[in-house]
Amino acid sequence: GQNGGQFHAAQLDKIPALRAIKPELEIAVDGGVGPEQAVTAVEAGINVLDVGAAIQSAEDPQASYNALAAI
Length: 71
Known about the structure:
This protein has four helices and two strands; from the N terminus they run H-E-H-E-H-H. By secondary structure, it is mainly α.
């Protein structure tokens, strides 16, 4: 997808239903995912984060990576 898209938090409401049907499913979010959004997404049940722009556009890419990896 295009780098730097928007995060649509309203879509996270659908995750519990998916988890109920198929708990082992890999569910990804792609678009506008920085550290704050990543926490929200993981808490909702997301287990794959596409965070390219959050790292590439960060002032300190290593620090951004480390923050995201710790979630």
